[in-house]
Each structure stands twice: as C-alpha cells, then as structure tokens.
Write a structure and sequence with these properties.
Shape: globular
Radius of gyration: 21 Å
Structural class: alpha/beta
Order of helices and strands: HHEHEHEEEHEHEEEEEHEEHHEEHHHEH
Largest sheet: 7 strands, mixed
Distance between the termini: 35 Å
Bound molecules: pyridoxal-5'-phosphate
Strand order of the largest sheet: 1-11-10-7-6-2-3
C-alpha cells in the first residue's frame, strides 16, 4: 500500500528536514484540522500513540485511584492498561458475540457507586451500540469514552465515530486502518474545555513554554508522522470502500458454510472492516490448513486481558466469570483484508476454506 505513496513520503521528509521544526508544527496543525473534519468533530489533538490517547482522556476527565471503569472483556489489552495507568480498576463486561462489541444489557449489573466511566471499543472496525451505552451512562451519571483505535471513519446512525461520546481515542499504529510510518495517536472531542485541558496535558502541562500548570505528559504526534498521515488520510475513504468490497466478497462466498460463524453488522452500524473475523471450533486446524496454502491469518486476540499475566492478581480478586470470552479466544480467526488484498485473493481464500470444511 505504500509503494504508490513512496515518492510523496520522500518529498515530505525532505521538506520537514529543511524546515527543521519537528515538534508541534504546521504538519500537525493541518492533520488535526483535517482529521477533526474527517470525524465530524470540533477538536482533534495528535498524541504519541493510542494508549496515551486513552490515558490522557482518562486523566483529563479526572479518573483516579479506586474508580471503576467498565471495559469490554474482549479487547486489545491497551484499553485495560489505560484504566490501570490512572490507578482505576477495569471492570470487564462480555460482548454480544454476534458483533463482538460490548453488550449494553450486561453493563447495568456492573455499575455501583465507584463506577465512573465506560470505555466503548469499536472492535474490528464496527461502532459499538452507542445509543444504548450513552443512555445507561446518562442514567447513572457516567462518562463515556470511545476507543476508536480500530474504526477510523466507521459510522453509527450515519455519524462517524470520534464524536459519539465525551471523547475518543485513535491509534495510528502502522497496522491500523489509518497508520503512520511509526507510532501515533489522536484524541477527538466536541468539548472545548476538555480540549484545552488535553492540549496542556500532552505537552508537559504547558501552554506557554516553561509555564507548567499541571503535571502533564510528553505525548505528541511528531511532524514527520503527521506529514505522512496527511498524505494517507486523503486515501482513507477509498481504502475503507475497498475493505467493504472485500468483506462483501467474503460474506457472499462463505455464506452457508457449516461450522463457520460469519461477522454480523448491527442495524445502526457501518463497519470499516479493520479485521474480518470468522469463528469456528476447528480454528487451529483451519489456520494450519490455510498456511499450507500460503494464506496467512492472525488471531485477535489469543489471550484475553483477564487471562494475561498483567491482570492475574486482579482476576483472582475479582473472580471473573468470562467463560464466553475465553471460549471465543480459542475460536476466532482473522482472514486477510486491507488495501493490498484483491477480490481475487479473497475468492482464493474462500475456496481454500470451503475445501477445508469439505474434508
Ligand atoms: C491498537 C489499539 C490500541 C492502542 O493503540 P497504540 O497506538 O498501539 O498504543 C488501543 N485500543 C485498541 C482497541 C487497539 O486496537
């Protein structure tokens, strides 16, 4: 996907070197403006990565030690780590396994006097059930944060993610739908005072050099990465449309294959297909078979956060019952998808999958 952009990247790199302004310059300012426009929000701030984006939001919203934050049980561990970094406790809730997004009906049982926020992850490219989540949050006076690291441009009720809650965190890790040539992240919000606070927090708690109003972080999106993202953002809508085309081809070709669970998109939601995740009890066998036919697949994620070493002690103290999450982790498989894949490739993969299940 980068071959066609290489010349532009190199020209921009020279330009940034010649300007010799590497931090908080024009490229970042432009990117923040363009990405806010893309998401349909008032404000965007470039930060160092997606994890920092979540941590900064939680800090700016005043989350602190002992607070509880509801998170999906089946997310990339960064969602949980952000909560832990501000001293709060991640409280996992299992998803609706037809969409893999957090099940709003299961959130209520986890709310108590210590609950302060919900992080809604738009997993695999599909926006979570934001209307139901925001309604529960309003009833219990909770904050809502979008983890949009996998869903740049995805829509819910026609509106793009990033502006569907108090604030949203994006990642530009190279493998995401919009990726930098290194690490990067962003925060979007429509709240002007939250924006001003975050702007300081990402820059040592400072808005004026050497005046430090708060104990901030150093978490900025640098000029080179912002420049590369400005080039790539122009192609994002085309890339998302291509992913949709590939997803349609998978759905059409794999329809009716027994023992295989295909991804479902909720009524209000429009996915940008960060991943195309199927589910089968014969996952490991299928993965091996596809590898033998030169088809690479991945697993998102093989070890759910509550089973990882990082959360062993919390798992004991909270005695989680997340058996469905644990079962799904043994059955999910991500098929090839992205701007570098063709519809012919997808048809080849589908033939191989059908051959496997015929055996
Ligand atoms: C990638 C990802 C993150 C973290 O982003 P980084 O830029 O890698 O720090 C957070 N949440 C989810 C759901 C992700 O997929």
């Amino acid at each position: 996907m980068h071959g066609a952009l290489r010349k532009q990247f190199l020209e921009k790199t020279s330009e940034v070197i010649d300007k010799s302004n590497f931090i908080l310059g024009d490229e970042l300012e432009n990117f923040e403006k363009y990405f806010a426009h893309f998401c349909g929000v008032k404000f965007c701030l470039g930060v160092a990565n997606g994890l920092d984006a979540l941590v900064l939001i939680l800090r700016a919203l005043g989350l602190q030690a002992g607070d509880e934050v509801i998170v999906p049980s089946n997310t990339f561990i960064a969602t949980w780590l952000a909560v832990s970094q501000v001293g709060a406790i991640p409280i996992p809730v299992e998803p609706d396994f037809s969409t893999y997004n957090i099940d709003p009906d299961k959130i209520k049982a986890k709310i108590n006097s210590r609950t302060k926020a919900i992080i809604a992850v738009h997993l695999y490219g599909q926006v979570a059930e934001m209307t139901a989540i925001n309604k529960i949050a309003a009833e219990h006076n909770l904050l809502v944060i979008e983890d949009a690291a996998q869903s740049h441009g995805a829509r819910y009720d026609g509106r793009r993610c990033g502006g569907l809650a108090h604030a949203a965190a994006f990642s530009f890790y190279p493998g995401k739908n919009l990726g930098a040539l290194g690490d990067g992240g962003a925060i979007t919000t429509n709240d002007p005072s939250l924006f001003e606070k975050l702007k300081k927090l990402r820059n040592y708690g400072s808005s004026q050099k050497y005046h430090h109003d708060e104990q901030g972080m150093n978490s900025r999106l640098d000029e080179l990465q912002a420049a590369y993202l400005n080039i790539k953002l122009e192609h994002l809508s085309d890339w998302s449309a291509h992913r949709q085309l590939l997803a349609n081809a998978y759905l059409k070709n794999l329809e009716g294959v027994r023992e295989l669970h295909l991804p479902q998109i909720a009524r209000n939601s429009e996915s940008v297909w960060h991943l195309f995740v199927i589910r089968t009890q014969r996952r490991d066998e299928l993965q091996k078979y596809l590898q033998s036919r030169s088809i690479a697949t991945l697993i998102h994620y093989p070890i759910p956060p509550h089973e990882s070493g990082a959360y062993k002690s919390l798992a004991v103290s909270q005695s989680y019952n997340l058996s469905e999450t644990s079962a799904a982790a043994k059955e999910v498989l991500s098929l090839p998808i992205g701007p570098h894949i063709s519809v012919d490739d997808v048809e080849y993969v589908c033939l191989a999958i059908k051959d496997f299940f015929k055996k």
